[in-house]
Amino acid sequence: MVKKTSVGIIGAGKIGKLHINNLVTMNEVNIRAISDVYIDQMSDWVNTLDVKYTTKNYMEIVNDPDIDAILVCTPTKLHSEIVIAAAEKKKHIFCEKPISFNLEDSLKVLDAVKKAGVIMQVGFVRRFDRNFRQVHEIVKSGKIGTPHIIHIFSRDPEPAPRKYVRHSGGMPFDMTIHDFDMIRYLTQFEVEEVYAQGSVLIDPFFEECNDVDTAVFTLRFTNGAIGVVDNSRRAEYGYDQRVEVFGSKGSVSIKNDTNHTVEVITKDGTLSDKPKWFYLERYNDAFKEELRSFLNCVTTGTEPTVSAYDGLQAELLAHAATISLQEKRPVKIQEVLKQTDLRLRDH
Amino acid sequence: MVKKTSVGIIGAGKIGKLHINNLVTMNEVNIRAISDVYIDQMSDWVNTLDVKYTTKNYMEIVNDPDIDAILVCTPTKLHSEIVIAAAEKKKHIFCEKPISFNLEDSLKVLDAVKKAGVIMQVGFVRRFDRNFRQVHEIVKSGKIGTPHIIHIFSRDPEPAPRKYVRHSGGMPFDMTIHDFDMIRYLTQFEVEEVYAQGSVLIDPFFEECNDVDTAVFTLRFTNGAIGVVDNSRRAEYGYDQRVEVFGSKGSVSIKNDTNHTVEVITKDGTLSDKPKWFYLERYNDAFKEELRSFLNCVTTGTEPTVSAYDGLQAELLAHAATISLQEKRPVKIQEVLKQTDLRLRDH
Amino acid sequence: MVKKTSVGIIGAGKIGKLHINNLVTMNEVNIRAISDVYIDQMSDWVNTLDVKYTTKNYMEIVNDPDIDAILVCTPTKLHSEIVIAAAEKKKHIFCEKPISFNLEDSLKVLDAVKKAGVIMQVGFVRRFDRNFRQVHEIVKSGKIGTPHIIHIFSRDPEPAPRKYVRHSGGMPFDMTIHDFDMIRYLTQFEVEEVYAQGSVLIDPFFEECNDVDTAVFTLRFTNGAIGVVDNSRRAEYGYDQRVEVFGSKGSVSIKNDTNHTVEVITKDGTLSDKPKWFYLERYNDAFKEELRSFLNCVTTGTEPTVSAYDGLQAELLAHAATISLQEKRPVKIQEVLKQTDLRLRDH
Amino acid sequence: MVKKTSVGIIGAGKIGKLHINNLVTMNEVNIRAISDVYIDQMSDWVNTLDVKYTTKNYMEIVNDPDIDAILVCTPTKLHSEIVIAAAEKKKHIFCEKPISFNLEDSLKVLDAVKKAGVIMQVGFVRRFDRNFRQVHEIVKSGKIGTPHIIHIFSRDPEPAPRKYVRHSGGMPFDMTIHDFDMIRYLTQFEVEEVYAQGSVLIDPFFEECNDVDTAVFTLRFTNGAIGVVDNSRRAEYGYDQRVEVFGSKGSVSIKNDTNHTVEVITKDGTLSDKPKWFYLERYNDAFKEELRSFLNCVTTGTEPTVSAYDGLQAELLAHAATISLQEKRPVKIQEVLKQTDLRLRDH
Questions:
Q1: E strands within chain A?
Q2: What sequence ranges are listed for the domain GFO/IDH/MocA-like oxidoreductase (chains A, B, C, D) (predicted)?
Q3: What is the CATH number assigned to the segment(s) D127-283+312-344?
């Protein structure tokens, strides 16, 4: 019988719980420990799990010699110190996005992971969605030729809670960063320049936070191809997650997933389903696939589908987009990189 | 300059007017004469046309040496005598469906046309619809292999006027005959047996007429393939005209035409257009194409896409279907043919 | 903590294994025992399960006082004796379809279950598919008015293994019975007459078995509505499972599920996915939902979504269809019922 | 009988011929004269028309007292002098887009038309496409709430001939101007700023012309809503013409028109038609509708659907886009307007 991977989870908020509930259904893994500052308030749920121990001190997990891999699901500001500590203890790491709000910190993470020789995967779950993956395969196959223009539509059904929004880092870091990663995943191109056009059209609260709720990001790739990301914090009909890649020989696109395929035709027209409600419904399978893929990399020692380097690249774009929103001008990636550039080339 | 075909139209009711209005837009034709018993009441419309003469006596058109081709658009009961007279005068003939309500009469028409060596086309307009034609081409190409099961959905948006229904010959002759022809056109198979299952679910008036308003016809082809025709006299959402051919290697089907491709997504779902309303909207282009094809056969002396023989075959199926509805049992085509069979083999 | 339902499974072939693997993921159930004549050859798989005991003698399970419910997944010919024995021991029963090949035997099962007052659910899994369920809800809501015509398309991607086909009871019992149940579920109508038109077009082996591989079944409901079932044992493109209900106010239909929503447009046309391959892919979730629903009925003492009575009604239609195939004529349900009719009225 | 509108056409190149061939089929119009510098080479075609006279000197048409309305279909550089001369002679004017390459000239045209009190319509044909019109109606109805983001996809199947490209004014004037007009038509919003991101990815010839072949234009409306135009000079699969308007309550979008609705399902997937080939196929009906609408305005003295003012607004955006492409920065409309602004306010 194959040895099970022993896992510790740091941070049992919304996303941490989601991962834990998925790990429970997987035979190849053993959940050894969970750490959270509010772990005492979760005893009902923890009792249904078969966990060795829980703790408020994440270092207990980092220092546990019987743990192979750690999932880092805390608020972003804690990511880098936890990941660096875990890497030093030779733990493999799955870290939610973004690695940090700060390029220097993220680079330190990359350095630590490289030095330790451990596997690190960043939580860009959409790469594991069967639709996006299929688009990736088709682009790679050459069926549509060289990509010329790529569009990503990514609209939430409703804004995140205000408490979250205040510390989310702004739209480029809490929403668009997923799309920036997707655009790199699908085209395999690197971005040269970002121009952001944003507005507050849904809720004035975002103005208070110096944030936007509606935005379009135009990207220029180094080869002249062009990318567009369309983001809204509220699509009343559900979670709108689509992409189109237009190339020299054709185009590939996806439609939204729906709950059923029923079509009703009456004198009022033809009525079919709307998109699934939100990421729990749409990316339900992708979240499982993401962990399975990570566990497989840990077991086989292979490169993860989303590396720490990918995480940092998406952060670069989020930084550029943030500057563009503030200064209302196109921003070159080179400008954001500045001194960190030289060190990034090592990765 | 190419000589224009000189045409006379006999019968200027709904369908006659439709054809005349289409002929007006075609450069290759000259409308010489129109005959109708009610022609005096149509002077406003006739005056907008550039017609040599009108008449109440169709024999004037039949005997006119300057007419090349005649469109027969009268009530069905007059078709055979007109067509036979026209054939004797060497006129090419376009005749609305069915040729007659009576196999013997239809056979006399075929005999007369053959003897005269003129072209005769029967008005199965759907063969000229771009969608059905494409299905025909795909089946013929072998892309879906050998047809195993074919479904035709053919539902009117509303029943024809009661005055018409009383003398329409019943559903098999006023609706299904189009589908019987289509099924032969698409499969290139011949039918061996018909079973009809019919009901009155929409309007009790059809019961008074000894007719049905809802029916399913199951056909067995000589090679064992199976056909299904679904007919309803009222689909509240419009003219439902679809087909699916399922074969050994795949299936081919069509969707209904709509007025526009707009899709509205709200919290109530995804709303798109319903089918076009009726045959004038759906087969608008096909009616023009039908005449263009006929005129081209007249000019070039080629075989029409819908021959008199095709007309008679569809009538055979309509007769079998009528018997099946009355006697509630499967009916063999052979049983309907009886003595006419030998003569039909000449065609 | 809620008491778990203790379950025994009789028959661990293809479908038994499928159910067991689904039960494993459910917290509300405890798999106590598995019986199968070949259980000795399954030790690898059994060892991964947490099962109290296995046995070759199903009576051990029937007599086990610590078992609440039994899943009967043996070949059909053993169903009735097992179900009757289990009912006498007050076990709740989930039985695969059909209950038996014989109306008398099935009636005995219904009698035994009624007398014992236990819950019995029959394995018509498609009622638990989200698409079909949605159609059921829409028809029930009255949105499309009264159903006039219902079509079911149900085509397998490839024939079942020959070994299975020889004892499957023929197409009406191994395929169409699912569609017969679906048609009753969706319309809530009862059938009066069945006409079957069948052929061997795919594999002559079916002729040897006195069976067909391609068939269309036309049903007449007691209220005059009409049903059509289209069955093929091989659709090269996958598992084709669709339905359309056409009613007085509109129509409702479903499309096939696909693996992804990707659309590729090139000069060759627009290419999208084909249907999922087979029932494991298409009804994966429905199989789980089916068991969850059964377990819920056991726990709460409510009526199952598919009762033994529903099972028997579908069998009646399968018997009528078999006679129709053999005698090539429409067959009344009344004719099949004969003496069993009176006893059936008790259920 | 209603008096026919007497029309003269100036310029009988590709688009002029298209309009003439459409006018021929309309009863409400009389084509009196055609002028073109190459008219002598068109005698074969002219002879099939029923035209009073042809001329190389367009002033003959301008001065003809028996002409009510003039269609201006010459190269763009001649538009303004012809339109101004025609307005002075009180002719109603249909002018192809753009009015001119120069804001001052276009303003002179608006002044002349206003002073003369004649009707002037600009040739933005897409406003007459049934799909776009339906989107316009739905946005206006409030069904999708207030527009937040609008996307226009507008890709040609192949580049225009090189001869044309050299004097087309560049992509913003020969392609995007249609989309700029559409975006104003659909949202009823005015634009504040344009940012253009363009590349040469298809044919280096465009670089020689100081032009681009692939571009994305991001627009900011005065109310904070955002617009995106996606343009390519070559979509190998055909004429890609789509739009999505996303609003506070939902979204509305259109799909491309296709030649047929056929769907073929085989083991290779589901294949359906690609978009129609080019504007002649896609906007065939819209071109007719455009002229019908113009003639109706002439007869009834009502405002045209596309006014000279609309023409000038689209030109403003094309100028801004051109500057943005050259200077690689967002450009405010206010900056382009400068001194012409005051005079524009009169219109």
A1: 5-10, 29-35, 53-55, 69-72, 92-95, 120-122, 147-155, 191-199, 214-221, 226-232, 240-247, 250-254, 262-266, 269-272, 331-332
A2: 132-252
A3: 3.30.360.10
Nearest residue of D to residue C275, measured between CA atoms: D269
Q: B299: which residues sit within 8 A by CB, 6+ positions away?
A: B2, B5, B28
Hey, how many other C-beta atoms are within 10 angstroms of the C-beta on B63? Answer: 13
Residue of B nearest to A238 (CA): B267
What is the percentage of chain C residues whose pLDDT exceeds 90? 92
- What CATH number does the domain located at B127-282+312-344 have? 3.30.360.10
**Closest chain B C-alpha to A264 CA, distance in angstroms:** 10
CA distance A333 to A184: 14
Query: Going by CATH, does the domain composed of A127-278+312-344 fall within 3.30.1460.10?
Result: no
Residue among B151, B199, B236 whose CB faces C224 most closely: B199
Q: Where in chain D is the domain with CATH 3.40.50.720?
A: 5-124+286-308
Q: Mean pLDDT for chain D? A: 96
> Does D275 sit within 8 Å of C272, measured CB to CB?
no
C272 contacts D265? CB cut-off 8 A: no
Distance from CA of D272 to the nearest CA of C (A): 5
The residues that bridge with B29 in the sheet, in sequence order, are B5
Q: Which residues of B touch C250 (CB under 8 A)?
A: 235-237
pLDDT per residue over A210-250, tens digit each? 999 999 999 999 999 999 999 999 999 999 999 999 999 99
Q: In what helix (H) or strand (E) does residue D216 lie, and over which residues does it extend?
A: strand D214-221
Each residue's pLDDT tens digit, B91-147: 999 999 999 999 999 999 999 999 999 999 999 999 999 999 999 999 999 999 999
Chain B residues near residue D153 by CB distance under 8 angstroms: none
H/E segment holding residue A205: helix A205-208
Which of the listed CATH numbers 3.30.70.100, 1.50.40.10, 3.40.50.300, 3.40.50.720 matches domain A5-124+286-307?
Answer: 3.40.50.720
Tens digits of residue pLDDT in B215-253: 999 999 999 999 999 999 999 999 999 999 999 999 999
pLDDT of B324: 98
**Is D272 close to C270, i.e. CB distance below 8 A?**
yes
Are D240 and D161 in contact by the 8 Å Cβ rule? The answer is no
pLDDT digits (tens, 9 = 90+) for A163-213: 998 989 999 999 999 999 999 999 999 999 999 999 999 999 999 999 999
pLDDT band at A2 (very low <50, low <70, confident <90, very high): low
List of chains touching C (3+ CB pairs within 8 A): A, B, D
Cα angle for residues C47, C53, C57 (degrees, 5° grid): 120
* CB < 8 Å to B134, chain D: 260, 262
DSSP B174-213: IIIHHHHHHHHHHH---EEEEEEEEE--S-THHHHTT--S
Higher pLDDT, residue A85 or B165: A85
Whether A197 sits inside 8 A of D226 (CB atoms) is yes
A266 contacts C254? CB cut-off 8 A: no
Q: Tens digits of per-residue pLDDT, A173-182?
A: 999 999 999 9
% of chain B beyond a pLDDT of 70? 99
Q: Does domain B5-123+286-307 have CATH number 3.40.50.720?
A: yes
C264·A255 Cβ contact <8 A: no
Residues of chain B with CATH 3.30.360.10: 127-282+312-344
What pLDDT digit, counting tens, does each position of B134-183 carry? 999 999 999 999 999 999 999 999 999 999 989 899 999 999 999 999 99
Looking at domain C5-126+286-307, what is its CATH homologous superfamily? NAD(P)-binding Rossmann-like Domain (3.40.50.720)
Does the beta-carbon distance from C235 to B246 stay under 8 Å? yes
Residue B339 in contact with partner chain D when CB distance is under 8 A: no
Name chain A's partners: 3 or more CB pairs within 8 A: B, C, D
Residues 247-306 of B with CB under 8 A from A: 265-275
